[in-house]
Structure formats: C-alpha cells, structure tokens
Amino acid sequence: MDYDDEGLISKIWYQDSNDGDDINFLDKIKSKAAYLRFGHPDRFSLFDNKWKFYLVNMQNTEYVLGIGKISNTEYKKIRYCLNGMVLANVTDCLTENNIICRIDGNT
Q1: Above 90 in pLDDT, residue 23?
Q2: CB atoms within 10 A of CB 4
Q3: Using an 8 Å Cβ cutoff, are 29 and 44 in contact?
Q4: β-bridge mates for residue 80, sequence order
Q5: What is the pLDDT of residues 36-48, one digit of tens each?
Q6: Is the pLDDT of residue 14 over 80?
Q7: Which of 31, 39, 71, 105 lies in the 20 to 30 Å Cα band around 19?
Q8: Residue pair 53/65 in contact by the 8 Å Cβ criterion
Q9: Angle subtended at Cα 99 by Cα 93 and Cα 100, rounded to the nearest 5 degrees
Q10: What does the DSSP assignment read for 22-80?
Q11: How far apart (Å, rounded) are the C-alpha atoms in residues 39 and 20?
C-alpha cells in the first residue's frame, strides 16, 4: 500500500491472477463508489493507516477483505469483489471476554 501526504492510502496493489498485471484496487473501489449516493453505507473510498487489505482466495473465489480499526474494540470489515463492488459491510466489537459480537451488518 502507498500513502499520500495526509496519511491516507493512495494505492492498494494486487496482482491480477489472469495476466499478472499489478492493479491499483483503490481505483476500482472509487469507481464503484461513485455510483452510490452520498451517505450510502457502502460508499467508502478514503482509508487511513488503520486499514489493512487482504487478497483472499477460497474455493475458486477471490475477493479483497478490508479491515479497519474504528476504536480499541470496534472493527469495520468490508468484503469487495475484484471489480471493486462491495459484497458485505459489517462492524464487529470485541468484548472484554474476547468474544466478537456483530454490531452492524450481516453475513
């Protein structure tokens, strides 16, 4: 990942499994988010250094998982298909007993 002068992620690189090209996934996210109205819960395009992104390959399905730390106990998880569209958007909380509870979203 690359960061800009304000500490925001400017590039999220992954390698295309079909042709091996490096792709800036953040451009794909921004392109899809532009179609959503302002205030839509899936309209995310700014990420700071509290976010990590992972390319996941499970049973012939690839997706990108973004995990962001909102507070000491809350985490936002967004699952994207490889074209940048949001598949799932959830917020989880870690209790004092180390149990994860879903606060918002489903899946």
Answers
A1: no
A2: 9
A3: yes
A4: 64, 86
A5: 888 777 777 778 8
A6: no
A7: 31
A8: yes
A9: 35
A10: EEEHHHHHHHHHTTSPTT-TT-----BTTEEEEEEEETTEEEEEEEEE-SSSEEEEEEE
A11: 36
The token pair that represents 33 in the structure block: 């988010």
**Do 47 and 68 meet the contact criterion of CB atoms below 8 Å apart?**
yes
d(C-alpha 28, C-alpha 24), whole Å: 7
Structure tokens at 59: 């049973």
| Residue 107: per-residue pLDDT | 62
pLDDT in tens, 53-94: 888 888 888 889 999 999 999 999 999 888 888 889 899 999
User: Which residues touch 90 (CB under 8 Å, ≥6 apart)?
Assistant: 76, 77, 102, 104, 105, 106, 107
Alpha carbon distance 2, 34 (integer Å): 22
**pLDDT value at position 67?**
93
The single residue listed with the structure tokens 């800036």 is 24
13/77: higher pLDDT: 77
- Which residue has 């007993």 as its token pair? 97
